[in-house]
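Bug #77: duplicate submission created two jobs. Keeping one. Sequence:
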Amino acid sequence: MRAIARFLAVVCLTLPLLLLAQDAQKYGATDGDFVAHNFKFRSGEQLPELRLHYRTLGQPKRDANGHTTNAVLILHGTTGWSAQFLVPPFAGELFGQVQLLDTSRYFIVIPDNIGHGKSSRPSDGMHAHFPHYDYDDMVLAQHQLLTEGLGVDHLRLILGTSMGCMHSFVWGETYPAFMDALMPLACLPVEISGRNRMWRKMVIDAVRNDPEWKNGEYTEPPKQALRAARDLFVLVGGTPLRLQGALPNRDAADKYVADAVEAHLLDLDANDLLYAVAASRNYDPSPHLEEIVAPVMWINSADDFINPPELGIAEQQSKHLKKGTFVLLPVGENTHGHGTHTWAVAWKQYLAQLLAESGAPTR
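Kept job's structure:
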């Protein structure tokens, strides 16, 4: 467990969490698949069958009118999947008996989003001919999974991390009456720009400019592109304080880069990676934040490289939320850079506050 903690503390994006799927079984999650037929993307493209894989914990409860009252949707980040939440720093803090999202009281739904995990993705066979999905498409698919696949017509809570954080804002604007509360973790509700767009563009260019990519029709993984992407994820997912402590000299830092990159070089398919990073291209909920009616508890951490607090964007945009609270977690022993979103001990007190203020009893 200490080794896992050290690994997560240093590289805080969702990529390394793919290694932790073996932890999923002990939390009693049930796997399922939903197929959306003739799914239409905003690009005009269409799939006869769009598969969404998901995991659930607990059982749905309904009121006298048959409406769900206890469903919670949890949304992962770029290149992540549902199993990333079934680990001790997250599930161990939230899903147990008398914990905030006790699965004997709540029905937890965690999808693998389009292009991720075991859901439909470019690497299934379409490669670079897969529809060019964006965040609106992903939220639409989540909505169909809930309503058509699981019979969930209302959510007690949406909690999203990183890309899932951005999806939370899209949900709040697109389906404002569908949820009682929103908890976005580690993002900004504005167009992806500045340094955030720069590192994403670097990943996209690395894939497209690798001669082995072959316009998506490669037979061997384009390792040069994947190595460059890994390097960038290691950098942007880290936090200076923890990196300095964990890697106090040149040799330690060099060895970590080599080990982290080489050991997990082929975890991702290059087309899947390209599509996942590019999906944020037209995200910008800022013009419609005032349309969100659900209470919002929005949490970022001060050591997040991807969403640096010195920009002041969160403080400015939170003023447009009717029932919004923005919290910037100071750098401390419980923050882990961008990946603080998966360490519930850092922010669960604010989840308790949100649940209480939006109508649910806490324990």
